[in-house]
Every structure is written in structure tokens, then in C-alpha cells.
Design goal:
- By secondary structure, the chain is mainly alpha-helical.
- It is 48% helix and 11% strand.
- It contains 7 helices and 5 strands; from the N terminus they run αβββββαααααα.
- α4 packs antiparallel against α5.
- The longest helix has 30 residues.
- 35% of the residues are buried.
Length: 188
């Protein structure tokens, strides 16, 4: 397993995450912890519960940093999701398979034994979804397929690695802002 560490949200973190999300759809009740903070102390990536209202929620790591979210938006608009996928397909397809398998296993780990047993018994289709999907609900074990750069960035930061890490870091540039007061997280 990758070196995934997180801490419970501190007082005020959920309010910061809500401000960071702005108009993006985000259910703050899913936050189980902060996977990484920026150098200013604000949540950069949160760890989410793998269940939302009893159904599988495919996003373990949620990118909350507004600067990185904006950068991911810009890169997606420029077609960089496909570019990153092609890069991984040609440079590290086995790494992609391993990454998705680790993601799948981590989601199951987050469920814990009791919820795992309950889902297996009460909702086999939900369990099958857990057992077959990796990053963002993409079928694990297939070729390189990805949904968005927000998810790839959050997963790279949360897991501490990514099969296209060098390319992704090159695309993103600086990961942290100089002045958090210029962003919603630094606003009172």
C-alpha cells in the first residue's frame, strides 16, 4: 500500500473546505480527514468516505485547493486529460494497473470489516462496484482511462505517487499559492 496518511479535520476545516468548493458540488459530510495541507495550513486534499448515503462513492481523495482546481480546469479545457492518459499508456501502463488496484484496496480498507460484510450481504451490486473499480469509479484492470485531472491530482497528492506523476507535476506547475488571502481558503 502507498504511504497514505491523514488527520481528522481540525475545527474550522469543514468551513474552509466549503469556501474552497465555492459553487462546485461537494458534500462536506463525506470528509473523513485531511490528507494533506498546504504550507499555509489549509486543506489541500481531503479524504472522503467511500460510501455516500449507503452507495459507493468513487472519489477517495478530493482536491480542495482552489488554485490547483483552477489549474486542473484550465488543463482539462486544453485536452490534457487525454494527453496524460496517452503518456501513461506509453510510459507506464503497469503502473496504472497497480495504482488502480491500490486505490480499490484502499477504498475497501476505508469501509472497514463491518461495513464490508454488510454491503456484501445486503447489496451485492454495490460490493461488485467496490471490487471492480479503481480511481474515480473507472473499471480496474483495463487500459488507461481517466475522468479528470482534479481526481488525478488529488490522488497523486493523497497517495504520494501516481503512474504519470512527472508529467502531471510538469503540467500543474507550482502546487501551492504564495498568498492564501487571494483565494477562498484564506478569506475570513
Amino acid at each position: 500500500m502507498p504511504p497514505v496518511f491523514f488527520e481528522p479535520p481540525l475545527p474550522g476545516d469543514i468551513d474552509v473546505v466549503k469556501r474552497q468548493a465555492g459553487s462546485r458540488r461537494f458534500d462536506a459530510s463525506l470528509v473523513r480527514g485531511v490528507s494533506r495541507r498546504c504550507r499555509h495550513g489549509f486543506p489541500l486534499v481531503t479524504l472522503c468516505d467511500p460510501l455516500k448515503k449507503g452507495r459507493p462513492f468513487p472519489t477517495v481523495f478530493w482536491l480542495t485547493c482552489p488554485q490547483l482546481s483552477l489549474r486542473a480546469d484550465e488543463l482539462e479545457s486544453a485536452g490534457e486529460v487525454r494527453s496524460l492518459g496517452r503518456h501513461i499508456e506509453s510510459e507506464n501502463p503497469e503502473g496504472w494497473r497497480v495504482f488502480n488496484l491500490e486505490y480499490l484496496l484502499f477504498r475497501v480498507f476505508l469501509l472497514g470489516p463491518e461495513r464490508t460484510r454488510n454491503i456484501m450481504r445486503e447489496d451485492p451490486s454495490a460490493w461488485n462496484s467496490f471490487a471492480a473499480t479503481g480511481v474515480g469509479g473507472i473499471r480496474a484492470g483495463g487500459g488507461v482511462s481517466m475522468k479528470c485531472l482534479h481526481l488525478q491530482t488529488a490522488s497523486m497528492i493523497g497517495f504520494g505517487w501516481h503512474p504519470g506523476e512527472n508529467r502531471l507535476q510538469e503540467m500543474l506547475g507550482e502546487v501551492e499559492c504564495d498568498d492564501p488571502s487571494a483565494w477562498p481558503c484564506g478569506a475570513p
